[in-house]
Structures are given as C-alpha cells and as structure tokens.
Amino acid sequence: MPSERIAASVRLNNGLVIREAGPKSFAKAFSSGYLIGEVLHKFALQDDFADFSESRISSAKLNNFSRLEPTLHLLGVQFDQNVAHNIITEKPGAATKLLYQLYIALQRKKKGVQTRVEMSTKVQNMKSEAFRDQRLSKRRQNEIMAKIQAAIIQIPKPTSNRTLKTFDAQKLMKKKKEAEDVANEIKKFEALIKKDLQAKESASKTSLDTAGQTTTDLLNTYSDDDYIKKIQKRLEEDAFAREQREKRRRRLLMDQLIAHEAQEEAYREEQLINRLMRQSQQERRIAVQLMHVRHEKEVLWQNRIFREKQYEERRLKDFQDALDREAALARQAKIDFEEQALRDKEIHEQIAIERAQARYKKHYSICAEILDQILDLSTKVADYRLLTNNLIPYKLMHDWKELFFHGKPIYEQASLRHLPTKLSAEHLVELEKRNLLDNNDYEEYKNMVGEWALPEEMVENLPPSNNCILGHVIHRLIESSLPPQVESTVPELPSFAIKGCLLGKTFSGKTTALKALEKSFPIQVLSIDTLVQEAIQAFHDNESISGAHGLQKAPEEKVLPVRRKSGKENQACTSSPKDVQDEALPEREDKTRLDTDARKAAKAEEVVASDSFSELTVRAQLGAKSEMLLKKGKSISDILLVSIMVNAINQIPMYKGWILDGFPMTLNQAKLLEEALTGYNRNLIELEGKKSQTSTLAVDPTASKEVPLPPSAFDFVMLLDISDNSSLNRMNDIMAEAFSSEAPHEDINQRVAAKHKDTDEDQNLRDQIQHRIVGFLDNWPSLEQWFTEPENILIKINAEVDKQSLFQKVKEMIMTEIIKKENKGSPRGKSVGGKIPLKKSPAESTDVSPVPVVPAPSKPGSEEWVYVNEPIPEEIPSFLVPYWKLIENSYINSIKTVLRELREGQHSILAYLYDIRTGFQQFLKRPDHKQDFVSQWQADFNSLPDDLWDDEETKAELHQRVNDLRDRLWDICDARKEEAEQERLDIINESWLQDSMGIAMNHFFSLMQAELNRFQDTKRFLQDYYRAMECKIPMDDTKRFTRVPLVRLDSRDILESQLRIPLVPRRSISPESALSKPKAKSILKGKIDYTLESVELNFETDEKMVMDTWQQSSLAISHMVAAEIHQRLMEEEKENQPAETKEKLPQAAANKKVKKEPPPPPPPAKKKKEDKKGKGKSPPMAEAAPVVVPAEEAEEVELKNELKLRIKEEHLAALQFEEIATQFRLELIKVKALAFLEELVIKAVDVYRLMDKWLGERYLNEMASVEKLTGVARYHIETSTKIQNELYLDQEDFFINGDIKVFPDPPPPVRPPPVEKEENGTLTIEQLNNLRDQFLDIAPKGIIGNKAFADILLDLVTLNLGTNNFPTSWMNLTQPELQELASLLVTNSESVDWRKFLLVVALPWPIPLEEELLETLQRFKALDAEQLGTVTYEQYKQTGLWFTGDEDIKIPENPLEPLPFNRQEHLIEFFFRLFADCEKVPPQLDYTQMLLYFACHPDSTEGVYRALSVAIGTHVFQPIEMPHPVAAKTSSFTDMSPIEGYPELEDNFMSEERELQEDGEEKEEEIPENANTEMISMQTLLQVFRGGNEVLDANRFASHRKIENIYLENFIKVFQDLGSKNLKPIEVAVLLKHPFIQDLISSYPDYKIPDVKIILQRSEHVQGSDEERSPSRLTEEKK
After folding, report:
1. pLDDT per residue as tens digits for the range 1164-1193
2. Region for residue 1497 given its phi and psi (left: phi exceeds 0; alpha: psi -120 to 50; beta: otherwise)
C-alpha cells in the first residue's frame, strides 16, 4: 500500500483505529512522537505511554522520542538522533519510513517468527534497557519538573485518586509476576539445553579419536611427505567442514526440537486445561463470552483512565496557559506602565520647557526693556553733552537716574500741556514720571538735601526739623475725629505645645514623615483631605450636639474667627449654627443674610429644617456645605477649608501640638488661616499704620510711629524640597510596587477587576500629578514670601533621600523648634498671638486734667513737657482736620508745581543756549563772494600773453592787481566781521535772559509765597485750636493774607483791581545808562567787555529785588507773630480788669511768665501793621466779664489760671517755632534764588564770550588766508609762470585745488609702433607673410618640386635688395646650400611642402607636447558644433593654441620708445593665414591638418605616433618591441637637434627627450591593458601618411601620384590581411603589429623637423674665413 496512508491502515487486533492522517498533515501529525507511542501502546509495547505529552513544544517532543528509542531498538527498527531530528523538523519521508519499518516489525512480531532464545535475550535486553530508560526518563522528567516548578506559581495539589493508585500497583505487581515466570522458564530451558550439549559432546569426542587413529595409520604407509601433507590438510579441512555442518545440523535440530517442545507444551497445557475444567461446549462458549466481556471491561477501564489522564493534562495545560497568559499580561502591563511613565516625564518636561520659556521670555523682556532704557539714557546723555558742551548739570543726571532706576522711559512719550479727556497709556506714563520727579524734588526741598542743601554759613543756624507741639495738636485732632474703636472679640486660642505645617510637592514624603512623627511626639497630624471626608461622613451620620457634648457647645460656636473682608466677602465662616445654616442652604448660598424680621416670616417647613440643621455639630454643618459644593461640581472654597481646619484644631487638647499636612496650599488660604488663628489681618494692620502717619509737615514724637505686626500663627513651616523628576519617579515606584504586590493565588477574574480599579485610580493620580506640581510651583513663591517676610519661620529640608534619613531630619528639626519654644516661653494670661492695644478715646483722656503743683521747668515742645489736653468741642476736630489737610495739600502742591517749573525751565535754558551757539556758528559760516573775485583774477592772470611775462612793467601791473584783490578781500572780511558783531549784539540785547531771570524770580517768589501761606494758615490753625481749648469763640479774621509781589514780564497796563497778586514792574538797564553808572559789583571775570555790562547791571537789579522781597516776607512773618502776642496780652488785660484783688497774685505770677518770653514791644508792632496795610489788627474780643468767685473756689480758680498760662505758653512756643522754621526756609530760598540767577547769568555770559571768541578767530583766519593767497600770486608773478590749478578761497581756508585745472595739459607724445628686429637669422613675421604669399601664388596646394623650390629660394636670395624677404644671414647662402636645404624638406623624390618649410623657419615657437595637441584638438572639436572639421578666424582666436602671447612684456618708461614686439601673438595669427583656405569666404582652417603639421618631432618615429594620436583623437602607445630609430641612420648633419640654435627652447625639448628615455624602460608597466583599442579607418590612415589631400595638387607631380597609389594599395592589402571586410576600421593595436606598417612608421620622414640652422651656421663660418684663405685654396674650392 502507499506510504502516505500507512498510519491510516494501522489497525489493532481488537479492531480500533488509532488516527487518520492525510498526506499533507502526515509529517506534522507524527512530528511530536505521541502517535507513534500510542501505536506501540496499543500493541502493549510501550508501558510508560502515560508519561507521553501531546504538546508540540520542544521539551515534550524530546521526552516522547527518548521514551520511544528503546522500544524501537527492541523491535529492530533503525532509530537514532538524526532520524528523531528529521521527524521533529517534519522532513518529508522521515515519518513514513519509520512507520513502514515499524509496520514490518509489528507484523513479524505478530507472526511469531522469533526463536525462544532470541525472545529471551530480547526480553532481558528489553528489561535492562527499560529499567535504564526509565531511570533516565525519570531523571529528565525530574529535571524538567524542577524547572517548571521554579518557573510557575505553586498551586494547591488536587486530592489523590486512590483508585488509580491501586490500579497502577496491581498492574505493576502483575508485570513483576510475569517477569519472574518468564525468568524461571528461561532457567529451566537453559538447564535442559546444557544437559543435551554435554551428552552430544561426549559422543563426538569418541568418534573423533577413532578417526584420528585410522588416519595416522594410513598416512604412515606412504613415503611422499608432500603428498601426505596435502592429503592430511584436505582431511583436516573435510573434518572441520563436517564438524561445522554437524553443528549447524544440531543447532537446527535443537531449534526444531525446542519449537516442537514448545508446541507440545502448549498443546499439553491446553489439553490439561480442557481436561481439568471438564467443561462442555456451551460452557466454553460462555467462558469465551465472559472473557470477551472482561476484556471489554478492561478496555473500557483503560480508556476511561486514559481519558481522565487526558482531562488532567488538559486542565494542567489550561492552567499553565492561564499562568503564561497572566505572565504575558503582567509583562505587557509593565511595558505599558513604563511607557506611561515615559509619557508622563515627557509631558512634565514639556511643561517645564514651557515654564522655562515663559521665564525666559519674561526675563528677556525685562532685560530688553533695561537695555532700551540704558540706550535711551546713553543717547540722552550724548544729546545733552552736545547741548551743554560736556558739562551736564547734576540735577538732570540725577533725574535721569531716578527714571532709569524706576523703569520709566527717559524720552518724552506724550505731551502733557494739553491733556485729552481720555488719557492714553503714554499720557499715564508721563504723569507717573512727572509725579516721581515732583516727589523727589519735594523730598529734597523738605529735607534740604541735593540742590536744596544748606550753604556752609546756614548749617550752624539750622532749626529743629519738627514742630512737636503742632504734631501733637494734629495727632490729637485726628484721633478725636476718628470713630471709637470697638474692642476685638477675637477668641484666644489655647497655647499649644507646637504648631506648624509641613509643605512640599506631591510624593515628597510629608504624610510618611508625619505618621512616623506621630508615634514619637505628642502631636496631632491634620490632613485637609481626611478632615473634609470626616466632615461629610459626620453629616451623613447626622452627628448632632448631644448632652455629653453640651459643655463643648460654647467653644464649638467659636470655631472659626475669620473676619469678613471689608465690603467684599459676604460669607463669614463662623461657627454659630445659624450662620453655618445660612451658608449650607442652597437658597442662601450667594445671598446676604436675612434680618430677623425676614427669618420670622419664613415658612414653617424652613423653620423645621433650620431647627434640625442647627442641631447638627459644626463639623456636620461644614460637611453638608462641602458635599453640596462637590455635588454641584465646584471646588470647596478656601474659607470653608479653613473653617474645617480651625474646627479640628479647636478639638485638640492643650497639651498636644498639631502639624498640618500639606496645608495651606495657596496664599489666600495662608492669609485666612492666620486671620482665623490669630484674629489679625496683616494687610489691615499695615493700612492702619499708614493712616496713623497722615501728617507729613508735623509729626507727634510721642505717638507710636509703627504698628507692630502680630506674630505668625505657626511656630515653624517646614518645606520638603524635591525636584519634579524625583516626584514623578516616586509616583512610578509606588505604582509599580502596588502592581507587583498583588497576591499570586488570587483568582484571575478578581485580580483583573482589582487591576481595573487600581488602573483608574492610578490614571487619576497620573492626571493630577502634573497639575499638582504646576500648582505648587505657581503658588510657592508667594507662600515663601509670606512665611519669611515678617518673621522667618520657614525651614527647608532636602527630601531626595531615603525614608529613614528624611524622618531623622524632620525629627531633629521639630525637636529644635520645641526646645526653642520652651526656652522662649510665653507670658501667662496672654494669647500666643497677642492683641493690638486699644487706644483710649478722647473722652477718657480728658477725664482727669493735669494739676501742676510746681511750675514745670521744662520748655514747651521738649520731651519733659506735658501737653495740655483739655477737652475741645466736638465740632472743632471736624473743622480743623480738613483745614489742616487743605493746608498740607496746598503747600505740597504749590511746592511741587514751582519745582517742576524750575526743572523744566532748565531744559529750555540749555536748549536755547545751544541754539544760539549753533545759530551763530551757522551765521559765521554763511557764504561770501570772495571766490568769485579770486577766480576772475586768476583767469585774467593766465590770459596774459606769453611775450609779456618777463616785462617789468607788466609785473608791476600784476602786483598792483594783487594789491587791489587783497584790499577788496579785506573789505569783505571787515564787513562780515561787523555783521557778526551786530548779530552777537542783537543776541545779547534780546529779552530772553531778562525774561528767563524774571520767570525764575517769580518761581522763587512763589516758593516764598507758599511758605508764607503755610505760616499764616498754621497760625490761624493754632489760634483756633487753643481758643477752642480755652472755650473761646474763634476769631473771624477778615484780614487778607500777605501776598509776595511777582515780577511783571509784559508791559501791558492792568488795573490794580484786576490783580489777585501784586506785580512789580521790571526795570531793565539800557547799555547807554550802563556806561554812565558806576560799577559796584562785578561777576564778570577777565577782560572788560562793555557789551556785557548791561547784563551785569540787570543782574544786580534782580538781586536787589530778590533781597527786598525776602526782607518784606521776613518782616511780614515777624509782624504777624508780634501781633499775635500783642493780641494775647490785650485779651489778658481785659480779663484781669474786673478781677478781684485776691486774684492779682496768681495774675502777677502769670505776667512774670509772660515776661520771660521775648515778644517785641507793642508800639513797633503797630507801626509794622500799619505798613502792612492793616495786617495784624484784631477785632475786639467779645468776651464775658470775669465772674466773681467765692473764697472757697479760689483754689479752683488758681488752677484754671495756671492752665490758661500753660495753654498760652504752648501756643506761643508753637507759633515761634513756626516763625523760626519759616524764616529759615525764606532765607534758604533767597540764597538758592541768587545762586540760580548768578548761574544763569554766568552761562549766558560764557556763551556770549564764546561767540566773541569765535568771531575774532574767524576774522583772523580769513585775513591769514588772504595773505597766503597774496603770497602765492606774487610767487607766480616773479617766476613768470601760469597758475594751472584752481586757487580756492573758502571763507577762512585757502588751498590750491589739485583736482581742478583752469587750462588743459599739453597732449603727450605718440609712442611709435613696435618693430621686430632680426635675431640669429630668424625670419620676421613680415618676411614669413611675404614668403607665404609668394608660395601661395606659385603652389596653392602646398607642394612644389625640389628643383623648383631651390630655384625660387635662389631667386629670392639673389634679388633680395628692396624686398626684405630673408634676413641678412640668408643672403650668403649658395645654390648648393639651398639645394641641400631643399633636400631636407623633400617628402619624396621630387616634392617639397612649402608650409612645412615656413613652419620650420618660423622657429623658435613652443613645440607642443602630445597632450597639449590633443587638448587643443578637443577644444576645436567642442567649438565645431557641426563637426565640419574647419573653423573661422574668430573661432580660432576663441579656442587658442597651446601657447599665448607674452604676458610679461615690460612697457618702457620713455614714451618715445616703442613697445616690445610680441612675436608669439603674431605667430598665432600667422599660423592661421599659413594653414587656412583663403579661397573660401570667410577663410576656413582645417584644424586637424594644421595639428598634423605641428605633430612633427626631431625623432621621425615619435612624430608619426604623434600624428596618429592627433588623427585618431586619443593617445597612441608605441609597442614595446618596436625599436627606436637612431639618428645615425640619417646624414651626419642631421644628428644635431634642430632647436640647438634656439637656446630658449632647447631646455624644454631636451628635458622632454630625457623624460622619454628615462620612461622607456617603464613603458612596459605604464601601458594599460586596454591601450590602442581605438578604431582607425582607411581615410584616417591616408590622411596621416599623406594619402588623402596631396593627390589633388598640380598635374606635373606624376611620380607623386604613383607613390600615393602604392600606399593606397599597400594599405588595402594590410586591411585585408588583418581581416577587415569592406575596409572597415580596425583596432590601432592590431594595425601597428603589421610588418608593413612598422616599416613605414620607422622610415616615414614627413613628421621629422629638419635642422636648417646648421646650414646657416656653416655658411657664416665659411664667410668669416674667406679673408684668411689663400687664392689657390679659393680656386680649388671653385673647381
């Protein structure tokens, strides 16, 4: 049957089919060895089939085939490692061959052809090999199972199947019993065989002995030994053969006997069984059926066991697959996790890059702005250096620096003169700049620094800077005007052991460290996330206020003392139940609280709900609101979070400390938490501190200047510093640890579900960590500033360490903070934060008035002075406080305005002075007409005739003309000087300086007026205050304020009634009056300048006006103080008139105190008041007469009088202090005004003097230039030469312009054309052209007969007179010498090529190398686009030859000397005329034919190869075996090189020959393999060997045609010999190997350059020796 279906036809004896396999899947089905083991198992040959595996993995296949190997060897089947490898790899035919051998072996076993001995030996071998293989298989199986157990997860073992074990044990016992039976039978059989063999051996020995005796007897009868030996040998062989046959026969008989005995034994056993059973036929049938049923049961049981094993294997396989799948999923999850970690890092890096880019952009913009400002400052300084002549005022530079340091632009962005209604950004910036500079100027003015620094003479008289009495008055009035402060109801928090918070990024180790600290310290860790969850859980649990918590209700209602922000936050997180209820209810979340009436009108359901809600604890109420916000998708507000945190803090016992975990997270949370824990708002405290210092003109030294900031709510704030990458790595490590810590014995489905849950949480964590890190980075700078500014409580710890080290660091820091707090301690009875001390109200301060027992020795305003704080009416502060603010604002604004005008006036002054300087310079440089006169004089001077130049009268006339020109130019200079002086005088007489000084004086007068106004307003302010303290009615002062007169700048008439401010007319002094007045004081230094005297006199007038104004203002202040003191005295007199005598004593004491003050006497004061238009007059005081008091109230009256006296002293002291300060300010203003005016005048005078200096220097320079011009003119007059270059007189400069000539130069001489000279017998270009023309007329084709050529040369030499056809050396040539010359040029027996003759006699020219010829040919071919083989003259010049004209020709310096003749350039032109076809128009040049002429060489063979290279277009290599022709073959005179006569070419050509000789030996190596592979045609060969064109010459050259025909026939024969069909081109290498071609190349003379110079040299030598020869010698020579 076919081998592909062997397995399908293998059937068991019980009729079961193992498998069915098709031809395609046959090798694959048997590759695992499982089916082969199943076949052997069905035949009961493979007992360990249960250990076989149906899997297709390599370990299972190895196990199967290792168990099959001993069984197959037992059956005699060939099986080794190669066969197993072929079956496993599914090699075609391997499984089929094995199955076929197995089929044969099984059939043989089934027939039972084996003998009993073979079976026994096989059984023993099988038994031993089975045991050995079993041990090996068990060892391998154990090793494999150990590997599997190490790789898989241990699972609980299934319950043991005792039925299977029992069956296996029975089966094993049965096998052992069968093996023992077989062994016993074998032993019995061996004993029988041994007995038979012993009997047969004894019989054979006896027969052999008798046979041996007979043979010996027979042999002895014969005498021939050899024959006997042969017979003996044959007999021995026959005996040995018989013995072997006997053994074989006995062995066969024994085998048959054994088989017969076995059959007999089986038959006997069968008969014995039948006999013993004594059964009938029916019984035997039933027994057979029972045996069959039993066998079927066994088969079914075995099949069931086999199926159970398969199920168990399937379960184990499924479990293993599940484990593998789980491991694969775990690996994939790990890969996904790592990829996700990388993506997170990339996202974080991207965010970090964006943040870095944002920071970079911010820093870049800041730096760019700073650089722009630096550039603006630099350009501004440069501009003002030009304006101020490198002397920038200090004030300007100081202002620019202030603008630069404050980041304001230096240049003006917009004008502020006319502000629009809607201000732009530029206008706002300008306003900020102006305010900044105004404030700086005011501070300088107030503190008297900078420009307002005190002079040395005023430093000693400096008054106190502050009026303490006035400051006290203002401070008291402001406090009285403020509303009474309510005592703070902020609850005091208990003093905890330690308070702090731990901050840091996500995964920085905060929670881990705090959990460890909680075990070591008595602290409570508070986490906001946990507290929020607990609050929400408390709300769900309906946590209410029970009886047990009743005691804690009151403190719980004070959970959160967070104050509401002023008018912005309507929700207050207090702990009262109603408030929390209002915040928790949805209807009231964004509304203000309802009042009591609205709550009473609410519905009954709401009342019930509010009652039930109020019963909840505070934590539950806060949890309710938190849950409500979270359900809406909103975040919990900072106020609510702080409320939850403070509620938790209040529940902590006092002896324990607390630490917040990661809270606060933002600056707002920190502010709210501090306000909740301490009760103070830091921003409000700072605002209150600023408001307490409202007054700037007077400060109360006794009042607290600064409000102390409260301590922080924390004892420490600890930051666990960690990098972003470390945070991400820790997150990944935690997630990886959580992923790998899953229980291995957990159910797969449960693990998948848990994994999905953890994955969601991990994904949320991954999504949030980036936002958390970014949020922390955004909020931390502000938090760091908050925790470090008032008191540095921040501690930074590097958290990039392990857990133990981090915990140790945190523990050490907390121990340090606890020790610090214990050492510091806190006073008992006070809260940690402390409280702001409440100020007393004005009513409390006036309850007890001071009662002095003894008059205080201290002066008013000193530190020991006790101020009078008598009560004042309530309406007085409300009036005086705004009045004082108005005084301050008016004073400050006035000062700022004046200082601003002075500052801006500086810029205008500098700009004006710069303008007049530059304008005067431009005026001095205005054009004049002096150059016109100079040009006219020069033209007249040069136009003088040549014959008059030496005439003395003419020279005198010319000198007179020069004098007239000089006088005229001097007149122009004088006129320009007068105009410049008048311009300077006009500038000086302008009213700018007077106007500027007047404006400046008005500004300083305005400062005096501001000081005067402040003094008058302060006097009235103090008067009203102290009169109110004395319970008097304020005086109605109807007098007008004192006005400082200003300077009138215009001349318009204005009525005095229309003026609010008095004006003083300006008295300017004219120059005429200045000359008549005596000079009192001079500020002008150096030489006296009468034009500037008016400036000085005007300055003295202005100085006097400033002094007068200052004296007037000072006197006005003194008069006002005197009037105030006088008024006080008058009032006291009126009060003391009705007083009783018993009161005189205290009044006298009071008068004595008044006398101690230094007031001026009253009469002078009255006069001064009259001078000041009634100033200082006071209306009569309408006061009540003094009441008579009884005696018992005398003491009280005395106290009142003493109080009045103190009030008076304090009032007058404050007034006198103001007087001194104002007088000092006025004097300082006066000094600065005079300095300002003096500086302004000095600047103007410097400019005026500089203008005068420029004017004088320019006049002198112009006069000097005229003198220079005159000197040059007189020199040319005396030397009688014309002035060719233009004389240029440019204002103050004179020079001779060499670029301009007034008349042209004479033309230069014409250089003669170059002429070629004869040298060494070389023909000139002209001679070559003449010869070419003559030869062209005679023989246009270029071939002339030998004799005719010699005759032509003889005629030209003989008739050379006047023709110049040959040089001088050729004239001595004789006819034999000319014939010899012609013979050198003969191409064959009779013809000469005259073109080659002209080419040879044209030497020297650069002889080209072969490479240069080929390059030139390629250039011609590239230019010849149509491939015609010809070019025109233009193309010829464009291409060029291998040489060019001489480039290094030296031009002679003498213009009359001709240029050197460029022979090479003319040779190039001559070669075109020589080789071109002139019959065509335009002439055409066959460049290939021309280059063939230039291929000539002193060596004829080399010349031929050069010609072949030119004709083919590539280099042709000479064959190696080709002998070089020797020069000795030619005549003796040709041995000399043709270029010996040309030394300039000899070196080049000889070096080439040496190179050729040196390289001759190396040619074998240098010739490439593919050399001479080019194809050559018949036409090209005829062109090289003159076979193409010469035939067309004159008919008279018949012999020449015959030679050409011979070449043509020879070439045809050569081509035919070389195998060319139809004369097709052949390779050059093949052609050169032909003998004819080799002979032709070695003997062809046309490409050899003949040496004609030797003939000329021999002729010259003969001519030179003619004179020395005898006549007889001459006759002999003639013969």
Report:
1. 333 333 333 333 333 333 333 344 445 557
2. beta
